[in-house]
Amino acid sequence: MSPGPAAALLAAAGVAALLADRIWGVAAIALVLLVVCLRAPAQRRSVYLYGAISTGIGVLVLSPFLWSSPDGTVLWQGPTIPVVGPLDVTTTELAEAALNALRLTALALAFSAYALLLDHDRLVAAAGFARRSALAVALATRLVPSLERDAAGLAEAVRGRGVELHGARGYATLLSPLVAGSLERASSLAEAMEARGFGAGLPTRAPRPPWARADRLALAAVPVIVLGAALWL
Amino acid sequence: MALAELHEVEFAYPGAERTLGPVSLALEPGEIVALLGPSGSGKSTLLRAFSGLVPHFHGGRFAGRAVVAGLDTRTSRPASLAGTVASVFQDPEDQVVMTIVANEVAFGLENLGTPPAEIWPRVERALADVDALHLWGRKTVELSGGELQRVCLASALALEPQLLLLDEPTSQLDPDAATLFLAAVARLGATVVLSEQRAGRVLELATRVLFVEHGRVLLDAPTAEARGWLAAHRPRWTDASVDSTQTSTRPGATVLRLRGVSHRYLPAVPLLDGVELELRRGEIVALEGPNGSGKTTLARISAGLLAPQAGTIERVGRAGYLSQDPGRYVVRETALAEVALAVGGHERRSQAALEAFGLGHAANRHPRDLSSGERERLGVAAVAVAEPDLLVLDEPTRGLDPDRKAELAAWLRAYADAGRAVLLVTHDRDLPADRRIGLCVESTQAPLGVPVAV
Asked: Which residues pair with B27 in a beta bridge?
């Protein structure tokens, strides 16, 4: 499938997850997106899946304490905290937390599938206008695996000297060099792009294969998915 | 008529002293020029003066005049010179823009407004020229350093430039791949300026040699004449100047023993299969093999940074590991603090380690402000300062000039002779080794990961 319709399908799945109100509907969307993500190489997908699932779990755990509902059965009652209010967990809060967690997970999985599986170059090429902005988005997407690789390299460089990193504070010390490294990389990339004629004049585009029937069907399915989620899920 | 000329060109980066010049020289069409000189001598800056990146991209103070194909680089931006001049920089990872290899090679052609019908045939030719046609649809993020370097060269070749500027383009290639790469360069017919630290192969190819030191051209001569000059004045830049045949006289107790070690990243593709390896105190062992043969994986397993999927490891004492391209992985604000990390902040030991690697003057400088060769040496100092029983270095000569390489070779020998063991991943035969172990790739006849006599 061409990346344009594929990106539209993923966006539709993300919007559908936000619009759907039934938990099984959102769970089904998240499950489908998870299966799609599993098509990516194991080494690359792990960081995305970890990010998506841990975000969902974070919402599931925290939101019952941060959002209060008088409905439902009280499962646990805690102290009243100033500003936050009474700390309790009810069945309604849990159900809402699970729904929001699944929504967020589905959204993160849609982005993961976009980052892992799509040919961003063709998306840039397909951009009829604002090609530079499309390229910037594609480069930003590629930043995730670059940062991941740099972070692993930094951690290994430290471990290679016999120094162990302990806990969040230990890894936090790598944030500053990680940012410095990515800035250095960005500067080098800009230089390489300039040397390769970026911005020199009116660019052309290499011919790309025309859309197939599946692409047109995928595009037609986009409004159906969004409407279906809004009306029935 | 000259294709490119520099007239009394001088350049200083912002806030720094003069890096280049004054330099005057002319490049004739079809010349292949070897650009030699120590780390930080101004070779990269000279290349950037031809492409206009100096001063347009970097700023700084520029004097004199650089003219390429009739265009003055002071008035023509690098992007507008791109069809005439193409550059391949030192680090391939920092110059890849696109996600898919074929699109990466097509990127420059698209920018220059090449007719669409010509783009894919030119991409195909360029990839074939560097023996990388099989990478066509691969994701750039999944390629090895050597593969990326070939893709970068193909991206430059596809532009069919009149002037090709190559900044240490074979630094991440195994010897066979480097030979292929240089053969592709020789077939081009373009004017090529090729900066290199490993002079041997390049001198075979070059028609002319420039030797740069402290920003000035010390030698500008045809290759035959240059060989004589190098032998007389810079002997380490000629072949066989470093004695790598010294061997340990008394190997001691075992520091590392690997038995039946196997590892794979993809389910159906074993990378290491039943590796047996033993290192004793006083020994230096070099791992060789083509790009992708598992050398780095074996080094990481040996240093205890990666657990193998099968086999046993016995290690005595501490291990230290220096990854490829250590300059990218600096974690502290000064060179001294970078080295001190491994010894709990012990400044005196750290300063001594810096001085042992010729970096005493840089103790208070930010590691990212050092040259690539200096960063490489800083990386070795940062690992070696703790004096691990087993020192594992992955491609430690990248970016090092022959003088610094000779110093590293002598230091390694002394380190091993002091009763420690060294495991090197290197294609560089100038480094000393008591044994050289070759790793094979899947397609060869020899079994995977089994030591092969080299």
From this structure: B4
